[in-house]
Design brief:
24 strands; mainly beta; 7-stranded mixed sheet
Amino acid sequence: MRVRATTTVAAVIGAVALSALAVPAAQAAPAGPAVTLSNVKVNSKAVVVGPTAKVTVSASYTVTKPANLSAASFVSGPVLYRGSTVNVENRLLAGDNPGTCTAASSTVLKCKATIQFRPAKSDDFDDLVNSDAGTWNIGAVAIGDSGVTAKGGFGTVKVLRASKLTANAAPEPVKKGKTITVTGKLSRANWDSNTYAGYSTQPVKLQFRKKGASAYTTVKTIKTTTTGALRTTVKATVDGYFRFTFAGTSTTPAATAAGDFIDVR
């Protein structure tokens, strides 16, 4: 979930409410559990989230602790953050529940967890907004009664707004040499409004595959309108399939429309 805080750390990992740490600005935050967090891995290079549905991604990490520190005295879990360090006084992305850890020894815990991603207002949580799309850093936190121990620098993961692309070639059938109009639309998830919305002024390739051939070739590149619409014309030559393909951006994954067959007579 998305974690917000101002002068008080109000971090929640799942149903476990973390201690509210009201810390005067001139003082250091209380020290967290005396543990070391390592080997944090999120099992996805890119998390693609649509306009409404929750997406859950698994993660793993290691906790090293003193032998005399009870594993039950703290909770832990992976987090995603922006900036140079994990700052628990700012917004983080984390899971609904703390990690589940198994003792590999008296000092080493092997842990597994999940991170949930929800568009804003999609349920009782208020998670992703459009500005959250992009690259997040990977870290982890351990939380005890006294405070929070945080560690970052475990790589990155992209959190992307899902995309859709359509294509339609007309008229069909068409006489050889006549004009074919290919229309379509590029849209992507709007996490603020829980809908798909047009993705404006993006370069999109028109491609063609001759009937019986195995590969598409690029015919031209055009840009979407302010509403995400696509429209272009070509001359009819042979039977085949037209499609649009979009390479993606730093906030939106690539998308390819299904090929639309055109019958040339």
